[in-house]
Structure formats: structure tokens, C-alpha cells
Amino acid sequence: MAKNRFSSGDGPSQRQLRVGELIRRTLSDVLIRGEVHDPDLNKISITVGEVRPSADLKVATVYVAPLGGTLGGETAEAMLAALRRHTGELRHHVAKAMTLKYAPDLRFRLDETFDRLDETRRMFSDETVQRDIAQRDDDEDEDDLG
């Protein structure tokens, strides 16, 4: 198969990004409107953070998190279980919104982005790290003068 001369081969293609964003918006709309009739699913506010389609667009990994909640505990597990129970119905909604040959198989994972951001903030607030950053800034200032 010939390579696209405009593609560098690193990261997702433009088509993958567009399809992922369309899936994300469609799932968000379906979950906001409560179109899936499941009391367990409708009592949880769900954030669809990102969708990563595979290169052939047949599988889409959907990263979700309970809105305003933490990932640990029963809320996240109940949310994932409810989404996995209704994967077929959610896939049907996605297929109606898209014009692809195949509706992608949806795989739900917990979105841990916010937890990683919190950990990064804690690391930067550590006084040892602050001291190292200040020392590096001082060294760069001396290099600029000399």
C-alpha cells in the first residue's frame, strides 16, 4: 500500500481525529439527552473526554469519567458497567450520525487525565522541585549576562 505523501506517519491521521471527535460529540449528546433508557446510566453525569479510533476506524476507544467525581470507587465501575451493557445501543446511535462503511466497535476506558494533572501539580508544588526550577532560572540568567 502506498504511503500518503503528506503524512509523516506519527500520530493519528486527520481522518482519525475527525471521526474521533464526531463519535465523542455524538456520545456526549446521547448521554446528555438520556436516550439510553437505563436508570444506572442516567443517574450519573458522564464526561466523554476523548475518543481514539484505530487506524482502520473499526475500533474506537472511548475515554470517559464521571462528572464531578473521582475515578476510584463504585461510581466509576458502575458507570463503566452500564456503558458496556449498552455498547450496542450506543454504537447504533454513532452509526446513525456517521457515513462510514462500518460502525466502530466501542471500547470504554476510564479517563485518568485529570488525576495525572493533579499529580503533576503536586509535583511542581514540591519545594525541592521549586528550588531546582529557581536554580535553573538563575543559571540561565547568568549565561545571558556572560
TrEMBL record:
Return any one Pfam family short name.
Answer: RBFA
The record's GO molecular-function terms, alphabetically, read: ribosomal small subunit binding
> Which key words tag this protein in UniProt?
Cytoplasm, Ribosome biogenesis
Q: Which domain of life is it from?
A: Bacteria
Q: Which family does it belong to?
A: Belongs to the RbfA family.
Q: Could you give the subunit structure recorded for this chain?
A: Monomer. Binds 30S ribosomal subunits, but not 50S ribosomal subunits or 70S ribosomes.
Write out the function statement from the record. Answer: One of several proteins that assist in the late maturation steps of the functional core of the 30S ribosomal subunit. Associates with free 30S ribosomal subunits (but not with 30S subunits that are part of 70S ribosomes or polysomes). Required for efficient processing of 16S rRNA. May interact with the 5'-terminal helix region of 16S rRNA.
PANTHER family for the chain: RIBOSOME-BINDING FACTOR A, CHLOROPLASTIC-RELATED
Question: Which named protein is this?
Answer: Ribosome-binding factor A
Identify the species of origin. Paenirhodobacter ferrireducens
